Write the structure tokens for this entry.
Amino acid sequence: MLVFPNVVKAGFIFGAQGGEGILFVHGKTAGRYRTVAASYGLQAGAQKFGYALFFMNQKAVDWINSAHGWAIGTGPSVVLVDKGMARTINSETLHSGIYAFTFDQRGLMAGLGIQGSKITRID
């Protein structure tokens, strides 16, 4: 599991977000990571939030450990799980490489745009 507990996002037409997180493997710290993203579009506001990436198979864990920086969408598939979908996850639906859960959202950010996100190991 890779947890980013405090990500800050702000934007007006152009936007950016960033934060640092920790990779846990079998409950032990296995590395520190940085997430950064840039966006463009009809957007305005600022918010803080956290998110956790759950690696569902050994292939996904091996990939994150060998990648020297990766963009969401370029490796194993990432599924964003919202409150409604979380109720329907079971052993038959866990077929994706990575599941992302957001938490502790504060602030207001609204918009429609294009975003690119990159995660890089920092230690």
